[in-house]
Design brief:
With 424 residues, the protein is an alpha/beta fold. It contains 18 helices and nine strands. Helix 2 runs antiparallel to helix 3 and helix 8 runs antiparallel to helix 9. The longest helix is centred in the first third of the chain and has 22 residues.
């Protein structure tokens, strides 16, 4: 199809149904005003020029923020489609191409409009320079070369409205829409918020703890395969790799639909709201709570017990909870809990059992103990190899011991900090 002029396009944008929310988008709003002004018999030339360069400003601004490149109008339209979140995108996340014909036809109607919009030839109609946004390369944010970009390029290179729709459906199904369209990790701030600079930890970065890693992998693979899996509690000293092991799961399995959502202890009250959002999405989610513990007097643990048990409404099959803690039973215990003499509570052992019962809600408990000296040396030596440090082993070990003694003792984190100090 040849490029369409602004006048030929006319009022087609008003016919959007599935993607009607795009009409409220700032760039689409400016573009529609520009199209409407051009289509007027006596369109204001000064207003047309003003709208055209305002459009260019917004496109370049979005490019520098989001890493759009090439033909910015086309790239922006595709990016907006990908980031949309509506009944159609959610259906695609869950069912892929297995959609009812009614919904597919409604989406195809919109795709014909949006596909033609990517072919819009403003220059031929307005006789204005479009070189600023034709082959644009952003400076502040470079497009990443990964699974997301490959799938986006498939959409950009679509040869027809139907082809573009099929590529978009595939994108939603394999990656996600809305907040999930270009992120694998999220935080919760009254909704999912993507973590742009995610720490892509790999299991090879965690030396040792073979049993713990294998157990995590086995449980997580069962989960993303649709089989029964357990919530997991990772217990141990600080710096031993508990959090890194959970992050490594997202790095390893995001291409298979696994997503990581980190929440804080204070956000446990939002758990029902979080579950309502996640169960409607077509991905597998690990809700990650790092450094979880409860002090004397805090009662949020009772609510968490209820959540993990499912309460009246069970936890969705696409959600698991993985938590790390320095406390084996998560809740601070005191000797008075165990001392039954002089207590006002008749059955004081019930207090103990109540506090211990939270950790029992995690079907798998993994312990990460601090490494002994030989294990510490192995971690240091492996990290030194990764950083291409050519240091004699005896010297490396001697300095590693001194570093551990002056810092926080032996741990994977201490070893990493030691190697970082040598790499500076």
């Amino acid at each position: 199809m040849n490029n369409l002029s602004v006048k030929e396009f006319g009022a087609n944008l008003n016919k959007l149904v599935v993607y009607r929310n795009l009409l409220k988008d700032p760039v689409f709003t400016i573009l529609k005003k520009l199209i409407d002004e051009v289509c007027l018999t006596n369109g204001n030339k000064d207003e047309i020029i003003n709208l055209y360069y305002e459009l260019n400003y917004n496109l370049i601004s979005c490019s520098e923020k989001s890493g759009l490149n090439g033909n910015l109008l086309k790239a922006y339209i595709i990016d907006s489609i990908i980031k949309s979140k509506n009944f159609f995108t959610k259906a695609c996340e869950k069912y892929g191409a297995n959609l009812e014909i009614s919904l597919y036809s409604a989406a195809l109607n919109d795709m014909e409009i949006l596909y033609n919009l990517t072919k819009l030839d403003i220059k031929s109609t307005l006789d204005l320079d479009d070189s600023l946004t034709q082959n644009y390369i952003p400076t502040l944010t470079k497009p990443s070369i990964n699974m997301f970009e490959i799938k986006k390029n498939n959409i950009l290179n679509s040869t027809s409205p139907r082809d573009m729709l099929e590529n978009i459906v595939e994108y939603y199904f394999e990656i996600g829409s809305g907040e999930m369209c270009d992120n694998i990790a999220f935080m919760w701030k009254d909704g999912l918020v993507g973590v742009k600079d995610y720490d892509y930890v790999e299991f090879s970065d965690i030396v040792g703890y073979k049993y713990q890693k294998e157990t995590l992998i086995k449980n997580t693979e069962a989960f993303i395969s649709g089989h029964s899996a357990n919530n997991v509690l990772l217990i141990g000293a600080r710096g031993t790799g508990k959090s890194s092991s959970v992050k490594a799961l997202a790095t390893e399995y995001y291409e298979k639909g696994l997503r990581l959502i980190e929440i804080t202890k204070n956000q446990l009250l939002c758990f029902p709201e979080i579950l309502t959002e996640l169960k409607s999405r077509g991905k597998y989610f690990i809700v990650f709570i790092d450094d979880l513990s409860f002090e004397e007097g805090e009662i949020e643990y009772k609510q968490m017990k209820s959540f993990l048990d499912g309460g009246i409404e069970k936890i969705p099959s696409n959600v698991l909870v993985y938590a790390t803690s320095n406390r084996r039973h998560l809740i601070k215990e005191t000797w008075s809990d165990r001392n039954q003499v002089g207590e006002e509570e008749i059955h004081s052992s019930d207090t103990v059992n109540e506090k211990l019962s939270l950790s029992d809600r995690f079907g798998i408990k993994l312990t990460y103990i601090s490494p002994n000296q030989n294990e510490y040396f192995k971690i240091v030596e492996e990290l030194a190899k990764k950083h291409n440090l050519n240091i004699p082993v005896e010297t490396l070990r001697s300095e590693a011991v001194k570093w551990a003694a002056s810092q926080n003792g032996r741990s994977g984190r201490t070893a990493k900090q030691f190697i970082n100090s040598l790499s500076e």
